[in-house]
């Protein structure tokens, strides 16, 4: 995946001052290896962190910069780092990079790992220094074979240059880094399921508390951060808090830049580094180029399959967590999908819910049984065999599987697009209700898993 551009994007040159994540990218899309990365000021931030900043200074700088997680949850990174224990007697700690990236319609971390593997390694090195972690793992989606190859080569380059391993930069600090490929499960994007999988266990989420900062991998303090999150750290350390905050648009409560994209039947599907606070319309029209000829925008999702659908009139919302929340859904991963006017929403939702039902870990009843139930109802409606009350049952499931009702956030994310689709396109669901079929009271139909 390479960055693409359209309209104004063609006239904007990426630079270190405006595009901290992507200015080092090559035009040919090939990976930037160690010599080129260092020629482009690579590892300068790590040298500064080791020479001039204490571990607490690094944590405070990241906190002051307002960096938030880029995996979808948006939790403040510096606050998360601050949860790691201060007890110096705990000499075994872990840093995990969540590179599972199985959210449908999301590929931002893949681009960073394939083309800028040393940026991630530098971000992890600085973070490890701040957190006093002596070992790190990049938990990588198993299907990302090119990313695995590039990351392993970059790790070996960094080792040979004394940037990983023992006594890094003469500081006495040791940090080993390993690339661990997973078996390909969506639930591994949840940090405690990721930890279980890394330990060789079934990828079920854990009960919290205790949180990973207290009891993580093999019972030791652990911090889990997303790829894009960690890739922001070098620029913050190198150029400072005020500069980083200045990158965002006025009105945005989120700081810095974000990898954003648009897919679907748009003229120029792609991925761009943009300041938080740009509008969805800028992203859709100026960068993605609008819909292809012959297609009309019906609705869009702002940040992956687990975010709610929005209408064309919502494109003026600013792309940051609070801006998208104002129009009724979440920013998610920031990679949007355009749905054109030829798409039947019932069929689209049936396809989505099949994915989410299959990827459930099966631990808690609402998710394990509720998601297959939604698939069964949607399939019947799609085939024109729905019964009176089916839509109300689906809405009931949206409530029963909502935030706080299940063991982790898998089910709430799965039903968010379903609830919004019924809200905005209910007639398409009603069209699948057979008029002669007897009504069944809402939520009274039997659950048939896998039917």
UniProtKB/TrEMBL annotation:
Taking every annotated instance into account, which residue ranges of this chain make up the domain NADH-ubiquinone oxidoreductase 51kDa subunit iron-sulphur binding? Answer: 346-391
Question: Which Gene3D superfamilies does the annotation name?
Answer: 3.10.20.600, 6.10.250.1450, NADH-ubiquinone oxidoreductase 51kDa subunit (3.40.50.11540), NADH-ubiquinone oxidoreductase 51kDa subunit, iron-sulphur binding domain (1.20.1440.230)
The record, for SUPFAM superfamilies, names:
Nqo1 FMN-binding domain-like, Nqo1 middle domain-like, Nqo1C-terminal domain-like
Enumerate the cofactors the protein uses. FMN; [4Fe-4S] cluster
Q: Does the keyword Cytoplasm apply?
A: no
What's its catalytic activity? a quinone + NADH + 5 H(+)(in) = a quinol + NAD(+) + 4 H(+)(out)
The Swiss-Prot or TrEMBL record annotates one GO molecular function as:
NADH dehydrogenase (ubiquinone) activity
Q: Which UniProt keywords apply?
A: 4Fe-4S, Flavoprotein, FMN, Iron, Iron-sulfur, Metal-binding, NAD, Quinone, Translocase
| Its biological purpose | NDH-1 shuttles electrons from NADH, via FMN and iron-sulfur (Fe-S) centers, to quinones in the respiratory chain.
Family (UniProt): Belongs to the complex I 51 kDa subunit family.
Q: Which PANTHER family match?
A: NADH-QUINONE OXIDOREDUCTASE SUBUNIT F
- In its UniProt entry, what is this protein called? NADH-quinone oxidoreductase subunit F
């Amino acid at each position: 995946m390479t960055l693409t551009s359209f309209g104004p994007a063609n006239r904007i040159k990426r630079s270190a001052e405006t595009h901290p994540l992507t200015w080092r990218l090559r035009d040919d899309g090939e990976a930037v290896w160690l010599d080129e990365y260092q020629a482009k000021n690579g590892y300068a931030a790590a040298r500064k962190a080791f020479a001039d900043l204490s571990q607490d200074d690094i944590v405070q700088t990241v906190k002051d910069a307002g960096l938030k997680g880029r995996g979808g949850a948006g939790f403040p990174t510096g606050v998360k780092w601050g949860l790691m224990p201060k007890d110096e007697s705990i000499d075994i700690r872990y840093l995990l990079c969540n590179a599972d990236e199985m959210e449908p319609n999301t590929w931002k971390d893949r681009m960073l790992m394939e083309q800028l593997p040393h940026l991630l390694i530098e971000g992890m090195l600085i973070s490890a220094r701040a957190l006093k972690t002596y070992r790190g793992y990049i938990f990588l989606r198993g299907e990302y074979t090119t990313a695995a190859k590039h990351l392993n080569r970059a790790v070996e380059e960094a080792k040979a240059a004394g940037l990983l391993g023992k006594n890094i930069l003469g500081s006495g600090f040791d940090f080993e880094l390993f690339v661990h490929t997973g078996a390909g499960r969506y639930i591994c994007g949840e940090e405690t399921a990721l930890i279980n999988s890394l330990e060789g266990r079934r990828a079920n989420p854990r009960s919290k508390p205790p949180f990973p900062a207290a009891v993580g991998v093999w019972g030791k303090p652990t911090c889990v951060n997303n790829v894009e999150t960690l890739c922001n750290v070098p620029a913050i350390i190198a150029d400072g808090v005020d500069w980083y905050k200045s990158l965002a648009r006025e009105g945005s409560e989120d700081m810095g830049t974000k990898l954003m994209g648009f897919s679907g039947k748009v003229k120029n599907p792609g991925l761009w580094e943009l300041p938080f606070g740009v509008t969805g319309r800028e992203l859709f029209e100026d960068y993605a180029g609008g819909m292809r000829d012959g297609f009309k925008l019906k609705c869009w999702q702002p940040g992956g399959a687990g975010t709610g659908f929005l209408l064309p009139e919502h494109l003026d919302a600013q792309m940051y967590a609070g801006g998208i929340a104002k129009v009724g859904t979440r920013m998610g991963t920031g990679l949007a999908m355009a749905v054109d006017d030829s798409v039947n929403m019932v069929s689209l939702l049936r396809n989505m819910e099949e994915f989410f039902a299959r990827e459930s870990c099966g631990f808690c009843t609402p998710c394990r049984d509720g998601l297959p139930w939604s698939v069964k109802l949607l399939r019947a409606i799609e085939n024109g065999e729905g019964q009176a009350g089916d839509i109300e049952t689906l809405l009931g499931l949206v409530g029963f599987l909502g935030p706080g009702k299940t063991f982790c956030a898998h089910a709430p994310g799965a039903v968010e697009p379903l609830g919004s689709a019924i809200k905005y396109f209910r007639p398409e669901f009603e069209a699948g209700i057979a008029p002669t079929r007897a009504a069944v009271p809402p939520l009274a139909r039997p659950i048939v898993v896998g039917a």
